[in-house]
Amino acid sequence: MAAAAVPVDTQAQIGLYRSLIAGRRMLIVLDNARDTAQVLPLLPGDPNCAVLISSRSQLSDLMVSHGARFVSLDVLGEDDARQVLAGHLGGERLAAEPEAVRELLTRCAGLPLALSIVSARALAHPEFPLSVPAEELRDEASRLDALDSGGSAAGLGTVLSWSLQALSEEGARAFGLLGLAPGPDISTPAAASLLGVPVTRARVVLRELEHASLLQQHLPGRHRMHDLIRLLAADHARRRYDDTDIQAALRRAIDFALHTAYAGERVLAPNRPPIHLDAPAPGYCPVPLPDYTTALAWFESEHANLLAAQHAAAAHGRYESAWQLAWVLTTFHYRRAHLHDQLAAWQIGLAAVDHLADPGASILAHRHVGHACSDVGRHAEAISHLGQALILAEQSHDPVTQARIHHTLGWAWEQHGDDRRAFEHATLALRLVQHRGEPATEADALNAVGWYAARIGDYDHGQTHCLAALELHRGGDERDGEATTLDSLGYIATHTGRYAEAVEYYRQALALHRQLNNTYQVVNTLERVGHTYQALGEPEQARSVWQEALTLCRRQHRTADASRIQRHLTNLDSPL
Question: What is d(CA 306, CA 369) in angstroms, rounded to the nearest whole number?
Fold first, then answer.
């Protein structure tokens, strides 16, 4: 149409537009639509036309009113992102600097606009190596500046700010605080705690961010942000909100992690001596964990976030929460064989305890760091930390705590291959804890003495102590200790030629370990029962359990254990 023929009035323009497309087969592209109200006047009435709409908002009401089909565009995968860079810069330039290209792809995280901006900067300076923009993107503090194209409308921050401007005040606040939340994603109750609102309100606010494509619900009830959007959100929070408000939100997030994990830990290990937690901040939204299965599943889904919460607690001076987060993760870490995570968590915990005047926390931290060091083969460090824990416990005149440390020292010396020294520490632990009203600790000590007695060849002494331990464990409904003691009895029965009895002990131990989802101990028992089957002349049974143990070992990244079990399988197939 000639410009002079186009009416000034908007409604008249719409009427003219509709008359011009009537009877035609057209593909109409409505790019960067603000909202449904902006789109509706431009939808043709002719069924021979199709409309493609791009928008930062989901425009979900169009799905209801006009049968629109919604397609969510995710970020690019690595191969597609690499093709985008190659399309701009050429394959030769990418091939010349593979390390820099890898870093560019990582930092842009599949966001097409970020890739385009990085490519434009590289094209503007063809004499510069790609390591220059890669270095600029490495620093989180300056990454958004590095992705500013230099134009008024094409920079990443500018484009993302368009979505931010459309948010309500409550949505903008949530956007900023979510950018600061510890962890790779966040559940709805955790977000409610962070924001200090009820869960029902949090769902509404999260939905607003999801509709604005600033947040993705990647699993039911779990949300995450693209890394670059998260940087924008954190920058928005720091510029817009008072540090007191930010610290209060972070405290609520850390309290959510700590108090929910503590409740879960009490379900996983109800007989473990408890610790004292301060009351959570107002606005904390608890999650009920009524049974073992629910608690374990919660730890599985929140594990990375709990580790991140501990880092945040330490970084923000919440030292008590930092060591307590190590404590609440301990049972989960051992049952799921996260041995290196256990060590890292307690190293942070020990550093946090150094800021506190709390001898009890120091004893716990040194003991757990020592145990974790022993688990990953760092024997000298293990003995050093356990020695410090023992000195502190002796100064506190706490025999039960001393017994627990001697118990752990027994484990450390066993891992180092000195069963006789392990037996000495186990015997000291039993002497310290007997008749002190601590049945679970006494049962553990009895089993340890029995186990190490058997390891050094005194099977009668071992069986007497293990049977006494089994009775105590069963009386206190301590399934974990019961399973460990049944495993000890299986070992003793095997080494005294009672193979069928040994298989039955191992069968009961495995059943309990599986009930507890204690995959770490499942491996250990499977390996031992394999030797029993081999002694019984049942090589196929041995092969079956060792193959299962090997699969679990590899999943748990237990390299040395996997190599040993693989040798069992190889020897099983080797001719005599």
Answer: 18
pLDDT at 574 over 90: no
The pTM for the full model equals 0.82
Q: Which two tokens stand for residue 455?
A: 């390891």
Tell me the pLDDT band of 132, cut-offs 50, 70 and 90: confident
pLDDT tens, position by position, 211-229:
888 898 989 999 999 888 8
Residues 123, 79: Cα–Cα separation, whole Å: 21
Q: Which of 503, 522, 535, 534 is nearest to 561 (CA)?
A: 522
d(CA 113, CA 142): 17
Measured CA to CA, the distance from residue 469 to residue 485 in angstroms comes to: 7
Terminal Cα distance for the chain, rounded: 94
| 283 half-sphere exposure, CB direction, 13 A CA radius | 19
Residue 146 in this model has a pLDDT that exceeds 70? no
Q: Which of 459, 442, 372 is nearest to 411 (CA)?
A: 372
User: Please, how many CA atoms are within 13 Å of residue 555, restricted to the half-sphere of its CB?
Assistant: 12
Residue 549 is encoded by which pair of tokens?
């143990």
CA distance 477 to 17: 78
Dist. CA 494–CA 484, nearest whole Å:
15
Q: Torsion angle of alpha carbons 546, 548, 551, 555, nearest 10°? A: -120
φ/ψ bin of 478: left (φ > 0), alpha (ψ from -120 to 50), beta (otherwise): beta
Q: What's the CA gap between 194 and 345, in Å, rounded?
A: 22
Q: 439: burial class by Cβ within 10 Å (0-12, 13-18, 19+)?
A: middle
